[in-house]
Amino acid sequence: MAERCPWGTSGARRRLLSCAIMVILSFMAAGPVVLTEGIVFHVANRCPFPVWPASAPNTGHPVLAGGGFLVPPGKSRRVAAPATWNGRFWARTGCNFTANGMGAAAGCLTGDCEGRLACNGSVGAPPATLVEVSLHADPSKGSSYDVSLVDGYNLPVAVSAKPAGTGKCAIAGCAKDVNAVCPPELQVTASAAAGGGPKVVACKSACLAFGLDAFCCRGAYATPAACRGSVYSRLFKDACPAYYSYAYDTTAATATGCNAQEYVITFCPSRWGDEEHDGGRDAQM
């Protein structure tokens, strides 16, 4: 508790300055300032088609923005989160939330959460590219995030702090479209528009496709020394070097020690959309 200031009539200005110094020193001695404000995520869509971003909290954390929403091409959505939120974001594609009564169920081609627009905390069906977030209110610890393809891929995504250049808090998108190089045994396909052949809409991980311990880094392979990836994880790593390609991928980029109050999550950050996303275009929807 700060020392009580000796208010009086003589030397008031000097006493006031002395008191102010004592108060500042007492707060400095109390330790680092803990952030109480919330965090804002700008979820942007630079794909030439609509996406339905979704989020799911870790246990004990609240659902953000209902857990899912639509973002048209070239638009973005502001999503507020508590300063200590933990959870994941992903994008859903090819969604139709109205069953047509002719055997077609409502839902999404990738990342679906039980056919609902608002996932309300439900985790999406893999394969889907995951942004994993861990926010900390204490600046001495900082927030962290990464991008994972451990369960597979559907869209490229980039994550950065706002304003740009805040430390090393950035994860780049992909150099290649994984769906374009996905081997047949990992492909998730859907009928193309206008009567075309099947289109690859997502790429499973080897763990998801085959369920083998060697691919899933479990059982006898549950250590970094025993689980060193596979030809499939190397395909993911070649296309998206900054992402986790399998559970013990030590070359993946994890943004740590981030103390920004705003972050930008951009789906299709380049090639399919604008080369540079502009946070100033973030729009409420």
TrEMBL record:
UniProt feature coiled coil, ranges: none
Intrachain S-S bonds: 47-268, 95-108, 113-119, 174-240, 182-203, 207-216, 217-227
SMART domains, A to Z: THN (SM00205)
Spans through the membrane: none
Matching Pfam families: Thaumatin
Keywords per UniProt: Disulfide bond
Family: Belongs to the thaumatin family.
Protein name, entry field: Thaumatin-like protein
Organism: Urochloa decumbens
Higher taxonomy: Eukaryota, Viridiplantae, Streptophyta, Embryophyta, Tracheophyta
